Amino acid sequence: GYDLGLTWRSDEEGFEGTLEEVRAAGGVVASRRVDLADAEAGARTVDELAEELGRLDVLVNNAGTGASEPFLEHGLDEWRRVLEVDLTAAFTCMQAAARRMRDQGDGGRIVAVTSVHEHVPLGGSAAYCAAKGGLGLLVQVAALELAEHGITVNAVAPGEIATKMTGQQDEDPTRTDRPGLPLGRPGHAAEIAAAIRWLASEESSYATGASFVVDGGLMLMAAEANRRLA
């Protein structure tokens, strides 16, 4: 039921498809192209979209990038790029959104998409894990400070999801075997969207400062994997 402010960086075809879906459903859309490697551009874009649409009730931070480099060989430029997109830009967007929600005076919802690697490490992903771990604690600090304004702040922490980032875009995850996961498959993007939709709704009004893990049971497997490999 919301009007939507959507952003994109490089996937113009995917963006146009999203616009078509929203408009076909009768939704109102404002859009901007933005590269969150410039964190200040993120805050400006939040303000521009809010002005165009008339107000701001929900912010979803779901832009992200990563790097796969061994710790001893991780370049500083790549470290800075990942932290800028995944953490610093998330901060600037959340701050801009929260200021508008405070000034509107009737609360709001902020949802940050983190990762299971907000909670558990992954070899070769130092910058990504540092950014997602930092974003998880940023969510908690923001939730603590913004509660007095009726603004809730939560994270959704996906596991392996069939998207472009995992090389599985438009694939049916139910047909992909993942024997290391209790549910035995990757997740579908729609399953993450459902969690975000709940957090954007009035039904989640008493949830704040939490990280909702949606990972097919991945995080349950640490001790089990050790037992099986021992």
Write up this protein.
By secondary structure, the chain is α/β, with parallel strands linked by helices. Helix content is 42%, strand content 14%. The chain has helices at 12-24, 39-53, 76-104, 126-146, 189-199, 222-229, and strands at residues 4-8, 29-33, 58-61, 108-113, 151-158, 211-214. The strands form two sheets. The chain has a four-stranded parallel beta sheet, with helices on both faces. A two-stranded parallel ribbon has the order 1-2. Strand 1 (4-8), helix 1 and strand 2 (29-33) form a beta-alpha-beta unit. Helix 2 (39-53) packs parallel to helix 3 (76-104) and helix 3 (76-104) packs parallel to helix 4 (126-146). The termini are far apart. The model has no long low-confidence stretch (mean pLDDT 93).
Helix-strand topology string: EHEHEHEHEHEH
Q: Please compute the radius of gyration using only Cα atoms.
A: 18 Å
Question: Strand fraction band?
Answer: 5-15%
Separation, N- and C-terminal Cα atoms: 52 Å
Helix content: 40-55%
Mean pLDDT: 93
Would you identify the regions where 5 or more consecutive residues have pLDDT less than 50?
Answer: none
Strand order of the largest sheet: 3-4-5-6
- Beta strands, count: 6
Number of helices: 6
**Main sheet attributes: strand count, strand direction, barrel closure:** 4 strands, parallel
Which overall shape is indicated by the principal axes computed on the Cα atoms?
Answer: globular
Q: Strand pairing plus helix content: what structural class?
A: alpha/beta
